[in-house]
Specification:
alpha/beta, globular
Length: 199
Amino acid sequence: MSSAWAARLAPTACPLLGVAAWSGTGKTTLLEQLLPKLRERGLKVAVIKHAHHAFDVDVPGKDSHRLRMAGAVPMLVASAKRFALMMETPEQQEADLEQLVAQLDSLEVDLILVEGFKQWPLPKLELYRSAVGKPLRVLEDRWIHALATPGATIDVQDTLPVDLKQLDLDDIETLAAWVSAWPIHWRLEGGQPRREVTS
């Protein structure tokens, strides 16, 4: 872990919380339900989403796209309603979460939710559905602080870490309450992995 990333995990830094899950578990659906609930609780929340493929949010032929293709790095387009920053990163193998978080420094948000980036060392909420047919990540990843499953039940209960918070994936109010309290937890300890690994 770089010293710059370690500084991002300090109690004084903007709280980060990863939302980690296998594809098909419902990360985006959950965030779509969760964000209005967090806003109702007075939190200003930013989201960083990882994409596993090339994507383009710009429209070919429009001025901003033409200028980006001509070499503007970065390209920022703004109106009275919104702005978008686009940056070509052909020299990077993978998106750099540290760089992306830094882009949000001036926005004064209460919490940054990170969808994807499950290999990065940052506190995470794991979403798990046994029907997806993939293994639990919490058994290998000490950065996972909470596990949300349907009905808050799982068939490997005795092997779960004792300091792991278990939540009902289908109870959006309880999930929203836990996530909205995350900035307080962060201020007390910073972005640290769980202390225990197994029971």
